[in-house]
Amino acid sequence: MDTVLIIDDKKSMVDMLSKTFQSEGFSVLAASSVAEGRKLIQQGEMDIVVTDLRLPDGNGIEVLRAVKESSQLIPVVLMTAHGNIEIAVRAVKDGAYDFLSKPFDPEHLLIIVKRALAESASRKENIILKKEFSRFLDMPDIIGVSKVWDQVMAKVHKVAPMKTTVLVLGESGTGKELVARSIHHLSPRAKEPFVAVNCAAIPKDLIENELFGHEKGAFTGAQDIKPGRFELADKGTIFLDEIGDMEMPLQSKLLRVLQEREIERVGGTKPIKVDLRVIAASNKNLRKEVTEERFREDLFYRLNVFPIVVPPLRERAEDIIPLARHFITLFSRDMNKQEPLLSVEVEKLLMDYDWKGNVRELKNAVERAIIMCDSQTLLSGHFNIAEVHNDKADPDASLRAVSGIATRSAEKARIQDALRKTGGNKSRAAELLQVSYKTLLTKIKDYDIAGKP
Ligand SMILES: Nc1ncnc2c1ncn2[C@@H]1O[C@H](COP(=O)(O)OP(=O)(O)OP(=O)(O)O)[C@@H](O)[C@H]1O
Ligand SMILES: [Mg+2]
After folding, report:
1. Could you tell me the distance, in angstroms and rounded to a whole number, from the CA of residue 273 to the centre of ligand 2?
2. Are strands 98-101 and 166-169 parallel, antiparallel or unpaired?
3. Does the Cβ of 175 fall within 6 Å of ligand 1?
4. Residue 308 forms beta bridges with which residues?
5. Distance CA 110, CA 50 (A)
6. Is residue 360 within 8 Å of residue 390, measured between CB atoms?
7. 389: part of which helix (H) or strand (E)?
8. Tens of pLDDT, residues 410-421
9. In 145-274, at which residue ranges do the beta strands (DSSP E only) sit?
């Protein structure tokens, strides 16, 4: 329910307008002078102001100024008697939404008020969206000491200042979005919006509307103009994440945007120019998608101007511990906990683990460990990655199968422990475990235990 502030010194006028607005479901505030109006404006509880131009202690222009000082988003409509049209026209130039000359049909005022409110609502939404999208104005923390990672960052720094389209490829969780944000941050567009679109997460039938926006009346329910993400990203960067999941018909539309650098809202007739830096990302092999005719070849070449491949963690094992330390600091701070030390045993566990989910999986594992840890040192028990790595639990497994899995898991942990205690000396470990040397060797192989001392 919107609130209208009516400012007029003629009581009959205020009463008549109040009735009109109230019958349309508005709430009404009323004032009879500039001073009274100012007070209410400062309290800021109205969505729109309708004011007479001539007031006992001043005029509607002063009201307009007071409103604009408090919020740019509250429209002001002026009511004016004959002979004052020029002042009213100037007021519109100064930011009034519109004016009406007395006498007027209250229905006419209603139409103007509703239109003004609809426009300011869509501007509000726009501002909120822009804020949301440039939430990450700070350069993200990027950790990496390996040579391959240096090469990735060297590319990032080289291409960032250009307007060149970048295609970021890599397995899931490797840091593709982080790379995209860094490029934006290091570019001359850093202060402009970075608008991310996850092409896989937005439902098919909504994505066109999301990307291109729509005109008023484009379809039932389209009561207002809605700018699409391309428009919101104007002058900034649009990040098209999971581009490999985009439907073919939309791929053609995207291609047109990249070629023409203009967009058309759904239901629109005139193209709108957009100045965009495009960064796309995918964890799919796009060349293969092209061969298998799921991805347009021409679009692939448009995007593949400057590819950056983000390598998986297993190709940059040196980064694992520095990343883990970074996340330990991060989450300890977040959870208000004293930062625990990293034990040698955990370092080894982290180094040996196969991080199929890459940095994201490591980050999640550390977060869980920090939650679990109440001591000064992180221990392997705080992580549950060894179990995660084991045979997947089958909900319908027989008792025998369940105890088999449990035995394997327990045996594996015990063997790892014995090897650690003996510094990797297998015959001493076998003695400790009271099994033959040969049995130990078979189990080491069977459980895929890194046998190196
Ligand atoms: N080098 C790094 N330094 C610090 N944090 C990183 C690094 N790489 C990745 N991260 C963090 O790991 C998480 C996953 O990274 P990101 O979302 O960029 O990966 P992605 O490749 O886009 O993953 P997905 O394919 O699942 O979308 C994020 O929280 C990110 O901040
Ligand atoms: Mg991502």
Report:
1. 28
2. unpaired
3. yes
4. 168
5. 11
6. no
7. helix 385-389
8. 788 889 889 988
9. 166-169, 194-198, 213-214, 226-227, 237-241, 262-263, 272-273
* Nearest atom in ligand 1 to 177's CA: 18
Tokens of 351: 């180094």
Q: By C-alpha distance, which of 27, 89, 4 is closest to 53?
A: 89
Distance from Cα 280 to the centre of ligand 2, integer Å: 10
Q: Is the C-beta atom of 363 inside 6 A of ligand 1?
A: yes
- What distance in angstroms lies between residue 168's CA and the mean position of ligand 2's atoms? 10
The answer to whether the CB of 96 falls within 8 A of the CB of 64 is: yes
Ligand 1 atom closest to Cα of residue 181: 18
Model confidence pLDDT, tens digit, residues 279-335: 999 999 999 999 999 999 999 999 999 999 999 999 999 999 999 999 999 999 999
Tens of pLDDT, residue by residue over 365-386, are 999 999 999 888 898 888 877 5
Q: Beta-strand (E) ranges in 305-398? A: 306-309, 341-342, 377-378
Q: How far is the CA of 116 from the centre of ligand 1 (A)?
A: 43
Among protein residues, the one with the nearest Cα to ligand 1's atom 25 is 172
CA of 343 to the centre of ligand 2 (A): 31
Nearest to 35 by CA among 59, 1, 3, 11: 59
Atom of ligand 1 nearest to the CA of 141: 4
**Closest Cα to atom 31, ligand 1: which residue?**
178
Model pTM score: 0.62
| Distance of alpha carbon 155 from alpha carbon 150, whole angstroms | 9
Given a cut of 60, is residue 390 above it in pLDDT? Answer: no
